[in-house]
Amino acid sequence: MILLQDMTLQQLTDYLTSEYQVRSFVAKQIYGWLNKSVDFDGMTDISKSLREQLKQNCVAVSARIVRTLTSQLDGTQKFLFRLHDGNVVEGVLMNYKYGNTLCVSSQVGCRMGCAFCASTLGGLVRNLSAGEILGQVLAVNALQQGKERHVTNIVMMGSGEPLDNFDNVVRFLQLVSCPEGINISLRNVSLSTCGIVPNIRKLADMGLPVNLTLSLHNPDNEQRKAIMPVTKAYPVEEAVAACRYYFERTGRRVIIEYTLIDGQNDTYAHALQLASLLRGMSVHVNVISLNPVKETGLKGTSERTLQKFLQYLDKFGISATRRRTMGQDIEGACGQLRRRYLEGDDD
Length: 347
Ligand code: SAH
Known about the structure:
Structural class: alpha/beta
Helix content: 25-40%
Strand order of the largest sheet: 3-4-5-6-9-10-11-12-13-14
Bound molecules: S-adenosyl-L-homocysteine
Oligomer: single chain
């Protein structure tokens, strides 16, 4: 099947004019519908016969919302998207004063093996195409039509490791910032990685103004290896050096993500080691307490210890804040909704 949302307007026009002999204004109309996440049946200004032909070979909506959970606490919404082959991924929409941030998935499952993360429990199923990542944004954006704001910001913090699906993710960045499309500035897009060093450098060399987040979670290589196996290939010093390089090349300040796990990475010694690792760098540390995932048995750090950890970092001159926890009542953490869905115990 050909996913039409994988294409830019130019590519769609080339494809439709050569394969279906349509005029370019028709391609443009179809492109408009695709950007509103409207399926062939809803493309009312396109002839029925063309739509029937397209249905044979093409997919219009590459990610379809099949379930929505809304937090009673803060209005955060969690979506389950179904892809054309029946796989499902999830996304979260958070409302802030400055706009609406959508967290999207880049892979079905994940093969990074982080000990605390629900997304990786079943391993990697497959990569998402650029249009399947974009499709999540388009579907949620379409839901928001008529409301005050659409999706204004995107974080690639859903299931999957974006830098393990490099080419499709870069293509997604091109599609989402396309002036003829939904035209979201890459300054409003963040890509989060567990630290695949060569691809951080490759992305840096592309000079895109996308924000980079490194999920560090422990400054000590031996301890980090136990919770994040990627450390065996890329030690923390190399990951942090790649972040420095990213800042040099793009001018974008890197964010360090630090999830506190009870008794594992939340002591004074960890704060001290983290501060010395990041010394002299233009970074900000986002601290959160682990969102417990029942299968892992790990616990989040208490509020008191979290506040102390922030104070230590402040004392060591490291800019750090606590990231607001949202959607606590709707299984906000990565991959949890998909897991429940696959286990079949949520209907
Ligand atoms: N693979 C990418 C992006 C997806 S994970 C990465 O590693 O950055 C998005 C963020 O959620 C990462 O910082 C990840 O470490 C964190 N995370 C995963 N499971 C979590 C949990 N149960 N509680 C808190 N943070 C979690």
